[in-house]
């Protein structure tokens, strides 16, 4: 079963614009992670935010976490065509160890 | 460090056959997780191994099994293949120590299994 639900399911923007993706989850978490997947390939870890953090930055990425609303957002600034990919949020659902529960993802298309 | 490798990259099997997929984690990583990805169900957790022990298992039938060797390499086996087993199977490794929080995971490129 999916823990996270990303919104929107698909997003199409032009290069240079910002892209915002949202993720909602159902149960309490220890941390939330965002991953990127280029067409049919493995996932690449982007950023991890812990439940006691509210915001985190990594290069052009900004992630926020609101545990009261059980939601997170991923902002990609000044997007590039190379950012075209599917983006997934994943939570540990409080289970510990290395088990992640993924949402269904947001497909981002950045046009030149 | 070399990344996570998975073999084979592509497989075509017939219903009723069995298949074994292999995963070599990043050197030093002792946790290996397996996920199944399909268009309909998305990414679903299969199982996780740490130091040769299965620590966690997802909601999959007993036809799906796995193991981990002393060098942390892992294999997963699917017996009596069904059409619905067609999927991208992803392996991920992490440094995940026992009784610690979830760590970031490093994924391999996946094995694309097609069952005909």
Compact overview of the structure:
The complex is a heterodimer of chains A (112) and B (116). With 112 residues, chain A is mainly beta.
List the helices and strands and how they pair.
The complex is a heterodimer of chains A (112) and B (116).
Chain A lengths: L3 E4 L2 E5 L4 E7 L5 E7 L5 E8 L4 E4 L2 E6 L4 E6 L8 E7 L9 E2 L3 E6 L1
Parallel strand pairs in A: 2-11
Antiparallel strand pairs in A: 1-3, 3-8, 4-5, 4-9, 6-7, 7-8, 9-10, 9-11
Chain B lengths: L4 E3 L2 E4 L5 E6 L6 E8 L3 E9 L2 E5 L6 E5 L5 E5 L8 E8 L11 E2 L3 E5 L1
Parallel strand pairs in B: 2-11
Antiparallel strand pairs in B: 1-3, 3-8, 4-5, 4-9, 5-6, 7-8, 9-10, 9-11
Written description of the protein model:
The complex is a heterodimer of chains A (112) and B (116). Chain A starts with a strand and ends with a strand. Chain A is globular, with a radius of gyration of 13 Å. The mean pLDDT of chain A is 90. Chain A is built from no helices and 11 strands. In chain A, the strands form 2 sheets. In chain A, strands 2, 4, 5, 9, 10 and 11 form a 6-stranded mixed sheet that branches. In chain A, strands 1-3-8-7-6 form a 5-stranded antiparallel sheet, with no helix packed on it. Chain A is mainly β and 112 residues long. In chain A, strand 6 (55-58) and strand 7 form a beta hairpin. Chain B starts with a strand and ends with a strand. The relative contact order of chain B is 0.33. Chain B has strands spanning 5-7, 10-13, 19-24, 31-38, 42-50, 53-57, 64-68, 74-78, 87-94, 106-107, 111-115. In chain B, strands 2, 4, 5, 6, 9, 10 and 11 form a 7-stranded mixed sheet that branches. A 4-stranded antiparallel sheet of chain B has the order 1-3-8-7, with no helix packed on it. In chain B, strand 4 (31-38) and strand 5 form a beta hairpin. Chain B is mainly β and 116 residues long. Helices cover 0% and strands 52% of the residues of chain B. At the A-B interface, strand 4, strand 5 and strand 10 of A face strand 4, strand 5, strand 9 and strand 10 of B.
